[in-house]
Design goal:
269 residues; mainly alpha; two-stranded antiparallel sheet; signal
Length: 269
C-alpha cells in the first residue's frame, strides 16, 4: 500500500471533486471552531475498501489531469466570465426543486418554501436561471441532498467510497445518487445526446470554477493527499448532515406529523 504520493496531482487532479462534494457546498453551515460533533467521530475502520479507493483515486486523478482539467482551462480561457456565471447559475437552478424536496423531507419547511421561491424567481425573472435574481430578493441558496436526508433520518454513512469520475463518497451518499438521478430534470430529456452534453458542460464548468483550488490543496494535503481528501470529505458531510450542531437521528414519520393545537386555558371550552 502506497503511503507516499510525491508530486501527486490530487491537489490539482481531484481539487474539483474534493471541493465540490466536500468543502464548498453549504459553506454557511460550517461548524465553528471546536463545535465538531463528538458523536460523529470517525469509526475505527471507516475505510475498509482502502485498496480499491486508492485505485479509484489514482484513476480519477489521471482522468482529471489529462482530460478534465485541460478542457476546463480552455473553457475558462475562451468563455467570458459573465457567460460562465450564467452557465453556473443555470445548472444550480435546475437542482433547486431537488433541494426543496430534501429540505421538506428533513422537516425544513421554511427552507423548502424558500427553495421553491428561488426556482420560480430565477426561472422567470432570471431567464431560465441564467441570472440569480432570487439572491438579490433575499432568498438564500441552501444545500441539501438525499445523502443528507438519509443522514438526518438516522441512516449510517457506511464505509468511505471513492466513485469513478465522481470522487469521494460513502455508501449512504452513493445510494443517495439513485433518487437524485431519477429526480433530476435532465434525466427525462427526449434527446439523450443533449442530456449527455449538458452533464459534460456542467462538469467542465464546475471544474473551471475550481481551477485555482489546486495550489491550496497541494499545500494542505501533505505527503498523502488521499487521506487528506478522505478526512475532509467525511468531516464536511457529517457537518452538513448535522447543520453544524451535534447530530441526532430523526424519525422520518415525525417530520410529517400534524402540529397539535395548544390546549385551551383552564376553564376554556
Amino acid at each position: 500500500m502506497r503511503q507516499q504520493h510525491t508530486n501527486n496531482g490530487l491537489g490539482r487532479g481531484l481539487a474539483c471533486l474534493v471541493l465540490l462534494f466536500a468543502l464548498l457546498p453549504g459553506c454557511a453551515t460550517t461548524a465553528r471552531d471546536g463545535d465538531a460533533p463528538a458523536s460523529y467521530d470517525a469509526p475505527e475502520n471507516a475505510d475498509p475498501l482502502e485498496p480499491f479507493n486508492r485505485a479509484m483515486y489514482t484513476f480519477n486523478d489521471k482522468f482529471d489531469r489529462y482530460l478534465l482539467k485541460p478542457v476546463a482551462k480552455g473553457y475558462r480561457a475562451v468563455m467570458p466570465a459573465p457567460v460562465r456565471r450564467g452557465v453556473s447559475n443555470f445548472f444550480a437552478n435546475l437542482t433547486e426543486p431537488l433541494v426543496a424536496l430534501n429540505s421538506a423531507l428533513q422537516g425544513k419547511w421554511s427552507d423548502a418554501g424558500s427553495d421553491l421561491g428561488r426556482f420560480a424567481t430565477n426561472t422567470t425573472l432570471g431567464l431560465f436561471g441564467l441570472f440569480d435574481v432570487a439572491t438579490r430578493f433575499g432568498l438564500e441558496r441552501h444545500n441539501e441532498d438525499f445523502g443528507q436526508t438519509f443522514g438526518v433520518w438516522g441512516v449510517g454513512e457506511g464505509p468511505y467510497l471513492v466513485l469513478p469520475f465522481l470522487g469521494p463518497s460513502n455508501f449512504r451518499d452513493g445510494f443517495g445518487l439513485i433518487p437524485y438521478y431519477y429526480a433530476h430534470p435532465v434525466t427525462y430529456m427526449e434527446e439523450q445526446s443533449t442530456a449527455y452534453k449538458l452533464y459534460a458542460l456542467e462538469a467542465v464548468d464546475t471544474r473551471a470554477r475550481l481551477l485555482d483550488a489546486g495550489d491550496i490543496l497541494d499545500q494542505a494535503a501533505g505527503e498523502d493527499p488521499y487521506v487528506f481528501v478522505r478526512e475532509a470529505y467525511l468531516q464536511r458531510r457529517r457537518n452538513l448532515v448535522a447543520d453544524g450542531a451535534a447530530p441526532t437521528a430523526v424519525d422520518p414519520a415525525i417530520l410529517f406529523e400534524e402540529e397539535q393545537p395548544p390546549a385551551p386555558p383552564n376553564g376554556g371550552s
